[in-house]
Amino acid sequence: MIYFKDVFFKRAKKEGYFARSVYKLEEIDKKYRLFKKGYKVLDLGSSPGSWLQYIAKKVGEKGIVVGVDINPLKWETPPSYVYFWQRDVLNWDFKEIKNLVPFNVVVSDMAPLTTGIKDADVYRCFKLADKALEIAKMFLAPKGHFVTKVFEGQEVKQLLMDIKNYFSFIKVFKPKGSRAESREIFIICLNRR
């Protein structure tokens, strides 16, 4: 297990990414083709910034990438088409992005600070995913895509029921980059109705 962690950690460091989590997004993107040149993308829970780095490369300078996180970004000088606001998504008024909508893709890697109490952690992660869905419903363009992280638990069924009303394609996916013991999964939602 330590070897697995080191491989992704070392690879991220070698390739200039801020975190190993970038390879989860890369795998999702390769499988589901989320990003295209010129897209506008909203990344919720974007600190330390590896997802922003990856998305910026994919959409290019004609795209727009917006990151929001309660924690600061490690990326000191992102390109001019990458924006970041340090905000608590649960209490955010969205005023900074209102002139940038709609987005082609909304992604969320938000996760709560875990307590070690399984049911509580699953529920808190569900609430973040539910908030990400609410934001996607407000700001996602027709035919747009949405990806959110959740922890496996009974709340996932409730979230999937809600998502089915808004997207043509839905898939629950666990990337190889996720640790085997991790309960994290990603819900892939394509083609907003």
UniProtKB/TrEMBL annotation:
Entry keywords, A to Z: Cytoplasm, Methyltransferase, rRNA processing, S-adenosyl-L-methionine, Transferase
Residues at the active site: 149
Residues involved in S-adenosyl-L-methionine binding: 49, 51, 69, 88, 109
Known catalytic reactions: uridine(2552) in 23S rRNA + S-adenosyl-L-methionine = 2'-O-methyluridine(2552) in 23S rRNA + S-adenosyl-L-homocysteine + H(+)
Main location: cytoplasm
Top enzyme category: transferase
Domain of life of the organism encoding this protein: Bacteria
One Pfam family of this chain: FtsJ
Localization: Cytoplasm
One GO molecular-function entry: rRNA (uridine-2'-O-)-methyltransferase activity
Classification via InterPro entries: RNA_methyltr_RlmE, RNA_MeTrfase_FtsJ_dom, rRNA-MeTfrase_E, SAM-dependent_MTases_sf
GO cellular component: cytoplasm
EC number: 2.1.1.166
Family: Belongs to the class I-like SAM-binding methyltransferase superfamily. RNA methyltransferase RlmE family.
Biological role: Specifically methylates the uridine in position 2552 of 23S rRNA at the 2'-O position of the ribose in the fully assembled 50S ribosomal subunit.
The protein's name: Ribosomal RNA large subunit methyltransferase E
Organism, as annotated: Desulfofervidus auxilii
Underlying gene: rlmE
